[in-house]
Known about the structure:
By secondary structure, this protein is of the alpha/beta class. About 30% of the residues lie in helices and about 15% in strands. Helix 7 (about 175-190) packs parallel to helix 11. The model is unreliable at about 1-5 and about 20-35 (pLDDT under 50).
Amino acid sequence: xxxxxxxxxxxxxxxxxxxxxxxxxxxxxxxxxxxxxxxxxxxxxxxxxxxxxxxxxxxxxxxxxxxxxxxxxxxxxxxxxxxxxxxxxxxxxxxxxxxxxxxxxxxxxxxxxxxxxxxxxxxxxxxxxxxxxxxxxxxxxxxxxxxxxxxxxxxxxxxxxxxxxxxxxxxxxxxxxxxxxxxxxxxxxxxxxxxxxxxxxxxxxxxxxxxxxxxxxxxxxxxxxxxxxxxxxxxxxxxxxxxxxxxxxxxxxxxxxxxxxxxxxxxxxxxxxxxxxxxxxxxxxxxxxxxxxxxxxxxxxxxxxxxxxxxxxxxxxxxxxxxxxxxxxxxxxxxxxxxxxxxxxxxxxxxxxxxxxxxxxxxxxxxxxxxxxxxxxxxxxxxxxxxxxxxxxxxxxxxxxxxxxxxxxxxxxxxxxxxxxxxxxxxxxxxxxxxxxxxxxxxxxxxxxxxxxxxxxxxxxxxxxxxxxx
Length: 470
């Protein structure tokens, strides 16, 4: 069967993928334009949950994301955006603070920011500098909600529920759609005299833990992908699972979740399509929000940044979930759209390494705010403006979450190699992959004599970046 069925076009016509950015203004609605040479830009930051880098239509033709594709066409798509820790709580803390987990210390779901840490997050600093700030969705850091630190707060603790929500009329509404309503409400409360920063942290496409259906998409999109056959996961065979060392296979949460989601061809089709349908639900809300920005006359001064909090295995290596240092787990989308940039700068792809710790200093830079010295990320906007002569060529990865069935790991990632340490083992278990000849990370070259000189160099560089992360 075709990888992308003809029903895709008919579905989009029927359901409307109605919010494409090219046709955002309602008929008869004339946009007003903000003016003034010194106006600060508005900022819209959109975070998806468990959204791997290739779950975009502009990267993978199977995936239906017309509004995300349009945003990439209007802005810049980063091909190499990674997280420094692949788990919700820690990655979100890194996004807020611009710091590695080794510095901010959030390694589990119960630890909160200290008041001092919270005051140095990007929303707090923007608010201190005159921005109206809003937060919608999954907060993800600890169990104490900082509602009083925002001008508009619709955040929630924990994972949230896709199906147990009511709209303003008391009718059931899918969580993703409800969050779109809240975003519109925030925008309608904004003044043209004050810049805003709205952070929308979608639960989608994260599964609903404990529900056997897992990916609880909006029923409006049940027919999406109905005639599409999703290709089997590459490197997803029993042999790929068997190649892992015994300590990894003994008790592994990612394998347990693979059994629930991907252990049969029928389950695989159902689960991956559900995952993609959840992403489509976010895509619809993105289009709706961009339409509202146009209607309000502020689209030409609103920077939009879209990324994910971590990647996601869709059966690769015989795994589900995230956590480990494989590409599927740590690589996420990043689109930056700055409407003030010339047309010649739009629609580009960048291969530079971007990290989740770069989000906070970048958003602050767009607002003209100097990032605190303890932020370890870098300002991507300066890179895009060619104001930086040298950029990172590698990065340090850490995953220190304490879970009996999730082995702790640390890694060095370069354009050519990936060096991994499994630190619970005695001695430490090491892996080395040549990403040029083995992009699927299948052959561990750690004992290959031909790589010993390279291995020594990587070990030294790993130790250097590990120290710098603290």
